[in-house]
Amino acid sequence: METKKQSKVTESGKVAIKCKYLGATNTLGSRITVQRYEGGAWGKDPMRLVISWDYALNIGENYAEAVRQYVERANWGGVWFTSTCTDGAVAVCSTNWDHMQSLGGEVQSN
Predict the structure, then answer these.
(1) How far, in Å, CA of 22 to CA of 93, rounded?
(2) Where would I find the H helices in 56-96?
(3) Residue 53 and residue 34: Cα distance in Å, rounded?
(4) At a CB cut-off of 8 Å and minimum separation 6, what does 63 contact?
(5) What local confidence, expressed as pLDDT, does residue 27 receive?
(6) Do residues 76 and 7 touch, judged by C-beta distance below 8 A?
(7) d(Cα 46, Cα 83) in Å, to the nearest integer?
(8) Structure pTM?
(9) Rounded CA separation 69/50 (Å)
(10) 6 with 92: CB under 8 angstroms?
(11) Which of 72, 105, 74, 75 shows the shortest CA–CA distance to 91?
């Protein structure tokens, strides 16, 4: 796998990725929205991504996959740590992989 350089966005340490679960409706299946949080504002991400829930994966794997797809689409590198929360998951990029791994959760390198 090609190693991508970490972008200035992820190097700043001021960006997070928020995943939110959207339940099924009459016309759409369950989905996950993925967008970045930067500078204190949600919802202004032009790269916002909506992906279908993969029922073959567990909850943590679904969110980790959503983050992987977003990071790949944004062409960001680095090591991303994903942790579930009440209404979805949050992911942060870390340059200190050993420390993040010691905290537990889904760790993936892109």
Answers:
(1) 24
(2) 59-74
(3) 12
(4) 19, 32, 82, 84, 88, 89, 91, 106
(5) 96
(6) yes
(7) 23
(8) 0.74
(9) 10
(10) no
(11) 105
Q: Looking up tokens 């996959």, which residue turns up? A: 65
Tell me the sheet residues that pair with 51: 32
Q: How far apart are CA 22 and CA 54, in angstroms?
A: 13
CA 78 to chain centroid, in Å, comes to 12
Per-residue pLDDT reduced to its tens digit, 33-44: 999 887 665 656
The set of residues, in sequence order, having a beta carbon less than 8 Å from that of 41 and lying 6+ positions away, is none
Paired with 79 in beta bridges are 94, 109
Coil, strand, or helix at residue 17? strand
**What pLDDT, on the 0 to 100 scale, is given for residue 22?**
95
Residue 89: closest CA among 110, 66, 69: 66
pLDDT score, position 43 = 59
CA distance 86 to 79: 23
